[in-house]
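Morning run. Coffee first, then this:
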Amino acid sequence: MSEVAPIRLPRGRHGLSRETVVDSQRQRILRAVTETMASKGYVATTVADVLKVAGVSRETFYQQFTSKQDAFMAAFDTAANILFTRTLVEAEVAVGEPSEPLDRFDRALGAYLDGLVDQPALARTFLVEVYAAGPEALARRTDLQHRVVDLMVERLGFGEDRRFACDLLVAGTAALVTPLLVSGDLEAVRALRQPLMNVAEALVGR
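And here it is:
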């Protein structure tokens, strides 16, 4: 699963390497996990549902993953990396410009919210279905939130003395975005940018 659709393998004999075939199968499975769980939810989704969407056999699935949970964790990591990388790229661009930490945060926040809107299935995997996937998934999500806080403290320039305020911003953003994703109100997700910036200014100042 990625922002580029996985390769559909040709029928019959082909000259593709085993590595290419396995990677294509994996990407199709991860995309199917994300799309199926976004529509049916983690609990209601079965391995059979994923196989149908991915167009792979049960044997192929279990060659790559040990269970539905295992496939979900891989899909979660992919979703998180896509969303985090998009935000990080925008933040790194902002770091290279003469601007205040809040201006840099504004750029990164806008990229993050746009990413959620542009990739709603990924967003649901990352922020909604993770709650149904158990303690390991929630721990992985918490670790990623800590990475975002580290980015704000170290790269965006808020400083260690504002770490708790950054924690509040990250947790608050997730709490506000999640119900909007559940209801499918994507425009409201994007509209959070200015209210969140108002809160950020009140919490960390300029």
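The longest helix spans residues 68-95. Good start to the day.
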